[in-house]
Amino acid sequence: MTDDLLDKYNIEYHDQIKEMVHHPILVVMFITLLHPLFYYGRMLVKHRLEYLNDRWNLMYLSYVIFGMTNIVLQVSHGPNSFISQLVFITVILLTMMKTFFILRIIEGYSYIVTMLVNVISDLRVFLLFFTILMYNFSLILDIFGINKSDEY
């Protein structure tokens, strides 16, 4: 039905509008971000700069900002562009951090979440070393040359 309407009115950006109409998930994402947008925005106005002193508040605020940016980028650049995917991955990681923070309230999950946070903080040095090691390994493999097969 939407295809008939778009053809009837001869809309210039037919494919882009058709793509947006077929992605109702963006509408759902926007609706679910409205409450945090108003709530954290109201808290920011009420407490001003004191609100930004807590790192969890910064995480919540960045969740809302990246979430809205994700919606705009998916509409403007498409869901398969690199920047859209990068921002979407950031939103997913922020959502995971937010979920872990909320799970600390439940007594049964409090110990597990605290243990995971401690393990991740202890592994930072190792992960930095591992990243440097992988980067150097990729440089060594790059010396052999780029693979010229059709797959790459």
Q: What would you say this structure looks like, in words?
A:
By secondary structure, the protein is mostly helical. 79% of the residues lie in helices and 0% in strands. The chain has 2 domains: 2-103; 107-145. α3 (24-47) runs antiparallel to α4. The model has no long low-confidence stretch (mean pLDDT 81). The chain is extended. The chain starts with a helix and ends in a 9-residue tail after the last helix.
What's the arrangement of secondary structure elements?
Layout: H1 2-9, H2 14-21, H3 24-47, H4 55-76, H5 82-103, H6 107-122, H7 124-143
Helix pairs in contact: 3-4, 4-5
Major pleated sheet: none
- How do the SSEs run, as a string of H and E? HHHHHHH
pLDDT average, as an integer? 81
Gyration radius, to the nearest Å? 22 Å
Strand content: under 5%
- What low-confidence regions span 5 or more consecutive residues with pLDDT below 50? none
Helix run count: 7
Helix-and-strand structural type:
mainly alpha
Tell me how many strands there are.
0
* Global outline: extended
Give the count of structural domains: 2
Helix content: over 70%
Report how far apart the termini are: 40 Å
